[in-house]
Amino acid sequence: MKNAIVTGYSSGIGEAICKILEENDFTVLKLKTRLEDSLNLEKEVKQLLKNHDLELLVNCAGLGVFKPHEEISVEKIKELIDVNLTAPILLCNLCLRALKKTKGHIINISSIEATRHSKFSALYTATKAGLRNFSLSLFEELRRSDVKVTNINPDLTKTNFFDELNFEPSSAKNAHLLPEEIAKAVINIIKFDGVITDITLRPQRLEIKKVKK
């Protein structure tokens, strides 16, 4: 059995990734500390790695806000940066020595927004573009250590990510992705004989439905 740490494991893409990993002989080590709490997160990870080897780190937790930048509170700005960017960078830092021992794999779940520039997405795009570029640079750093680094950019995926937003993917079958499809891509990436450094997953059509909150 191999060990994996997966953030965002309680729902959506993270939950689907945990399920498929467990079906493929991984044990998922689930962090209990909130990702915004960097001090206690560091303590928990260090304690966990004293008792377990680590073959895989999947940074999947993410938050979104899409509105005029001046309307976003300072607290929400900090929360998005902490969860979407700071926590993955911190977890990579804390896990790297363990991953070097096993020649493991880091997979960061970014977003289609990391590859483009959309209206009302400046903050979210900044965090996800930062994560994507961190991933690509980290791969270059780690090539000689044989630690693989992959960045995944999912497009609209039908999850509870949209519960607090005023839009969601259309229910049309070919206008959204499912969490299980992202999870299948993760397994294929892990099994690939080489390194997939950056991959974008998209539905065929773009259809967004407005939702009244």
TrEMBL record:
Pfam families: adh_short (PF00106)
Top-rank taxon: Bacteria
Gene3D superfamilies linked: NAD(P)-binding Rossmann-like Domain (3.40.50.720)
PANTHER family assigned: 3-OXOACYL-(ACYL-CARRIER-PROTEIN) REDUCTASE, 3-OXOACYL-[ACYL-CARRIER-PROTEIN] REDUCTASE FABG
Family: Belongs to the short-chain dehydrogenases/reductases (SDR) family.
Protein name from the UniProt record: Short-chain dehydrogenase
